[in-house]
Design a protein that fits this description.
The complex is a heterodimer of chains A (599) and B (446). Helix content of chain A is 33%, strand content 11%. By secondary structure, chain A is α+β, with helices and mostly antiparallel strands. Chain A has an 8-stranded mixed sheet with strand order 1-10-9-4-5-6-2-3. In chain A, strands 7-8 form a two-stranded antiparallel sheet. In chain A, strand 2 and strand 3 form a beta hairpin. Chain A starts with 13 loop residues before the first helix and ends in a 7-residue tail after the last helix. In chain A, 47% of the residues are buried. The N terminus of chain A is likely disordered. With 446 residues, chain B is mostly beta strands. Chain B has a single domain, classed as Methylamine Dehydrogenase, Chain H (7 Propeller), CATH 2.130.10.10. Chain B has 5 helices and 32 strands. Chain B has a 5-stranded mixed sheet with strand order 15-19-18-17-16, with no helix packed on it. Chain B has a 4-stranded antiparallel sheet with strand order 4-3-2-32, with no helix packed on it. Classes of the chains: A alpha+beta (599), B mainly beta (446). At the A-B interface, helix 1, helix 3, strand 7, strand 8 and strand 10 of A face strand 1, helix 1, helix 3, helix 4 and helix 5 of B.
């Protein structure tokens, strides 16, 4: 409960109000924490680090011996406490508090011979007119005993003082009465600065913070500190590995064919990687390729069904994995692109993805940066242009081959125990009764788990035809709620349609047809299907077991399978053996790659 | 109390101050508008202006974020009018804003672009000026995204992040800057795989962040938990229908050592605890928060063993109907907590005089949607704005965008004036902060 009735208008603080009322400080006004024992257990000295808050500014001052001095000389080599006071200050929670706490601190420090010589107190008056060296000397003499080096300072002029006040962001505002006359009073912030031997500000105390225990612990911490250790690297970037991984893909993958005009090089991979993780490549510098294709999330995105672009704009489809994307003949879910070099421009220019307004805008942004001018010169002998940008990104993506999985060891190397008996039964179903391999193909010497064709599974049909009912919303694990139809209309008036490859070919036979995705690393890339509408592998298997979602364009390869739950378990066990042995290497490389950020 | 003053002619009395040290002293009472940092300078009387950090909206006016200044002093000829509007360029997902401890500068963040706009509000409180724009928040902080709450400490600002530049998920940190706008440090939220010495008291240690508040007398700093960029930028309907996205909300409140910025304890507070409001009375060692998804008021309190605990103490509306509590505001006497619920557009007063048993005493519909509420120190004036997030606001006719001023007599809210932010071609009205000439020793122009 606030103890006083505060009048409207200009009641800036309790003390100011009191002054206007012509009152002495109210004895009932609670003194600051610095007058009492701490009511909490502070952290142990040395068990924490004091951050560097800025450098302590210099300034010319006058000592109580009437000698000019520089603050930087007074601070040099000492742990310094600097504060600002008026000697005439009567506000118990203002200047007297600072003097009181510093005095208690000096007595505490006196017990530590090793510390007290490292410490100096500097108390600077911000009233040069009244606080002459002689007054300061008297003030200092009133504090007894004074076992540490405590200097009382003033300035020769208001302008000298102002320079120091400005440097320490120490505002002092004269107070005027209703007639605009100066009242002789000021308002200001109480701040005490802890400054290390290298003249860096390490803490700033206000009335609430200022306490002898805190100051003492901070000084002990500063006196005993060692230089901060450099931050540990999140991973290990390895360009040589990426180049080898592109040139000689791991077990289970075929060799890549590189375009004649874009042979793979380390310089292109390095450049492509930098571009891939650079958020400055989007219109408002917020979205990189890696924001939707997250390395730690299978180069897909586990945290949403369909992607989100600049300004949060909705994308209709799920972010596909980029592991092994160099092997794909169809790009985008509808397969509307065929080369990674061309594909790169799709997301860059899509209004709801990276949102760039033009090709020129993208290239100008890149070529403006010296770092990229150098890297493009190294990789291509010329600046970024429409061709080389795609070539660089394609080169990095072709290095993301992820195989050598337990399945590969079992199937191509004959290591009979590389996968479990359950997974082996799942494989038998996969190529047999379940019919999965009809689309997710496996060849004698390699397996892409994709026929590189488009099919209608009914997922797209179902979404287009079922409308947009209010969902059941999972609020927290185990707690769901219904959204009323009225509220749903206000929140979600329209959901964009998605007709699959028909949107490109305009052939009704292609309605809701999407490409067959690879199943390599599928354990890492939930949620599933082109719209992320199925959260788990088991549910995907159940969907196919029931024959997909029937519609007139349903692929003839999809039909009810009649598999038991146990057989679905076997299939799932098999799918879990498709995670590449080198996935973590690629993730570590990505983690260590530099992120492009707005400066 | 930060500010103090004195007459220059009064003789010093050191003896009296030393005697004071013998007193058994209670900690200082802080006076302020009811939700601001206790370190900050204050307006305890009539505020002159409300600064509204406003999101640009496509198709509305100049479509960019702006700081809108509204005259709210009934004695002013401009009362109830927009007196200034300062466009800053771009749609940055303008969200929260707050002052430095000297209250000379207003820092306003963009959750999308990570820009921080620093406005000078002291030179001419009626006409804030853009002093500088911090554009490298993410680069400097080591990848923190979404500068959210700005909280004044002496000479510096604590800024909570909501996300990160690796995956735009919820793993994030609190970042410290000095008042000059120089980066100081990043404090990552504790997670299950890196507790940083904190005690995980329940099942969650998720690394999310949202709001930050302190009880300096207890050396207490609290942070709450929301969600990452992927969700807060996502279309609201799309997100609600996406089970993968709905799993990505924070369920924790973290207790930190205010002095050392070390995490001490992680509390389970399921369902996205958002705003934190701490009691003002020095004997009241507790803070409130409310959970957006589970619609509960939670109390974080110091128990008899001097350990901090968290406990759900009340439902807000009918939680199964997802009223979505958003902003909350505590009264300066610690007796009332205003709680806005976005979905039904209502403001609700809870009696919190018994903090363990809050109960609703009043409700009124403010609009089709409502987000922020700001109260004057005396509790007699309440201001409301409409926008939650650009892509979470309602669509169509329900997308009302407004600033509304009310008087509260303890029984009824009475609207004084309203400004339609769409009609005025301003945008989506979000955070409100108060300005006053008196803070800077200025008098209103005649």
């Amino acid at each position: 409960m606030f103890p006083l009735k505060i009048r409207p208008l200009a009641a800036i603080c309790l003390h100011l109000w009191l002054a206007r009322a012509g009152a002495e400080p109210n004895p009932a006004a609670p003194p600051a924490p610095g007058y009492a024992p701490l009511i909490y257990q502070p952290a142990h000295a040395g068990a924490y680090r004091l951050q560097v808050l800025g450098s302590a500014a210099d300034g010319q001052v006058l000592t109580s011996d009437n000698q000019t001095a520089r603050l930087k000389e007074l601070m040099q080599g000492k742990i310094t406490l600097l504060n600002f006071i008026y000697t005439s200050c009567g506000d118990v929670n203002g200047c007297p508090l600072a003097t009181h706490v510093l005095h208690k601190l000096s007595l505490r420090l006196a017990e530590r011979a090793d510390l007290k010589n490292q410490v100096r107190f500097l108390t600077l008056s911000f009233s040069p007119r009244y606080d002459t060296p002689q007054i300061l000397k008297q003030y200092a003499a009133s504090i007894s005993p004074q076992p540490v080096d405590w200097r009382f300072l003033t300035t020769q002029s208001e302008s000298e003082l102002q320079n120091v006040l400005d440097a320490y962001n120490q505002p002092v505002t004269p107070v005027y009465d209703a007639q605009g006359r100066f009242t002789g009073t000021y308002q200001h912030l109480l701040r005490v600065y802890l400054i290390d031997a290298e003249r860096r500000i390490r803490n700033i105390y206000s009335t609430d913070f200022l306490h002898v225990d805190t100051l003492y612990n901070d000084i002990v911490t500063l006196a005993g500190e060692t230089p901060a250790a450099p931050a540990a690297s999140a991973g290990h970037a390895d360009l040589g590995y990426l180049l080898r991984n592109a040139q000689q893909p791991p077990l289970g993958l075929p060799r890549l064919t590189f375009p004649n005009d874009n042979p793979i090089t380390a310089a292109k991979i390095a450049l492509g990687r930098r571009l891939f993780f650079d958020r400055r490549l989007s219109f408002n510098q917020t979205v990189s390729c890696a924001i939707c294709h997250v390395p730690e999330q299978g180069y897909a995105n586990n945290e949403m069904a369909t992607a989100v672009g600049v300004e949060g704009r909705s994308v209709r489809r799920n972010s596909p994995t980029l592991f092994n994307v160099g092997q794909a003949e169809l790009l985008f879910h509808d397969g509307r692109e065929h080369t990674l070099e061309q594909q790169a421009w799709g997301p860059l220019l899509a209004a709801n993805e990276m949102g760039n307004p033009s090709i020129g805008f993208v290239l100008d942004n890149i070529n403006r940066q010296p770092e990229y001018r150098k890297l493009f010169q190294l990789a291509f002998g010329k600046p970024a242009d429409m061709l080389t940008l795609g070539q660089a990104l394609a080169s990095y993506q072709r290095s993301l081959n992820a195989a050598g999985s337990p399945f590969d060891l079992w199937y191509f190397r004959g290591q009979t125990e590389a996968i479990s008996p359950e997974a082996q039964r799942g494989f038998a179903l996969f190529i047999g009764r379940a019919g999965c391999a009809a689309c997710h193909t496996i060849k004698a010497d390699h397996a892409l788990f994709s026929d590189q064709q488009r099919h209608n599974t009914g997922i797209g049909y179902r979404a287009a035809m079922q409308g947009n009912p209010p969902p059941q919303v999972t609020l927290v694990p185990g707690q769901a709620a219904e959204i009323s139809p009225e509220l749903w209309r206000a929140l979600n008036p329209a959901k964009p349609n998605d007709l699959g490859y028909y949107e490109i070919s305009q052939n009704p036979a292609d309605r809701w047809a999407y490409k067959t995705p690879t199943l390599r690393n599928v354990a890492l890339t939930a949620p599933y299907m082109h719209d992320g509408s199925i959260p788990s592998l088991k549910e995907v298997l159940r969907f196919y077991n029931q024959g997909g979602a029937p519609n007139e364009n349903l692929s003839p390869k999809i039909k009810p399978l009649g598999l038991t739950e146990t057989e679905l378990d076997y299939l799932e066990a098999f799918l879990l053996t498709l995670t590449g042995a080198n996935v973590q290497v690629l993730i570590n490389d990505a983690a260590a790659a530099p992120r492009g950020e707005r400066e | 109390m930060l500010q103090h003053q004195n007459t220059a002619s009064r003789p010093f009395r050191l003896g009296s101050l030393l005697i004071l040290s013998l007193l058994a002293a209670a900690p200082a009472v802080q006076a302020d508008e009811t939700c601001a940092s206790p370190y900050m300078a204050k307006i305890t009387g009539q505020e002159d202006f409300v600064y509204v950090w406003t999101l640009g909206a496509e198709g509305v006016g100049d479509e960019q974020d702006k700081l809108v200044t509204i005259d709210v002093n009934p004695k002013s000829a401009q009362y109830g009018k927009v007196v200034h509007s300062l466009s800053v360029g771009g749609r940055n997902e303008a969200h929260h804003a707050d002052f430095t401890d000297d209250r000379k500068f207003l820092w306003a963040g963009g959750l999308d672009t990570n820009k921080i706009f620093v406005f000078d509000v002291h030179t001419d409180p009626a006409h804030p000026a853009l002093l500088k724009t911090i554009t490298d928040f993410s680069a400097k902080s080591g990848g923190v995204v979404g500068p959210h709450s700005f909280y004044a400490l002496p000479g510096r600002m604590l800024i909570t992040g909501l996300s990160n530049n690796r995956d735009h998920g919820g793993r994030t940190a609190t970042v410290e800057y000095n008042n000059n706008g120089d980066y100081i440090a990043t404090y990552w939220q504790p997670t299950a795989d890196n507790l940083q010495g904190a005690v995980k008291s329940g099942q969650f240690a998720d690394g999310y962040n949202y709001d930050v508040r302190a009880l300096p007398r207890q050396n207490l700093l609290l942070t709450s938990a929301f969600t990452g960029w992927s969700n807060y930028m996502m279309d609201f309907g799309k997100m609600l229908a996406d089970p993968a996205a709905m799993q990505r909300f924070g369920n924790t409140v973290v207790q930190w050592d205010l002095q050392t910025k070390q995490p001490k304890k992680i509390f389970d507070v399921p369902g996205a605890p958002l705003e934190i409001r701490c009691a003002w009375n020095p004997q009241h060692n507790y803070c409130f928060t409310s959970t957006a998804l589970t619609s509960k008021i939670w109390l974080v309190y110091l128990d008899a063993n001097k350990a901090w605990q968290a406990q759900a103490v009340a439902d807000i509306g009918v939680p199964s109907q997802v009223p979505l509590p958003v902003d909350i505001s505590i009264s300066s006497d610690d007796n009332t907590l205003w709680v806005n619920t976005f979905m039904d557009g209502k403001t609700r007063a809870f009696d919190i005089s018994d903090p363990f048993h809050p109960h609703q005493t009043y409700e009124q519909k403010i609009g089709a949607q409502v987000n922020m509420v700001s109260s004057s120190w005396d509790g007699k004036r309440l201001y409301y704005t409409s926008s939650l997030l650009a892509n979470w606001d309602k669509k169509g006719a329900d997308n009302e965008q407004f600033f509304k001023a009310y008087h509260w007599d303890g029984k009824e809210l009475t609207q004084q004036f309203a400004i339609d932010f769409t009609q005025a071609k301003l945008g989506r009205a979000h955070q409100m902060r108060f300005g006053a000439y008196s803070l800077y020793g200025l008098n209103p122009p005649k």
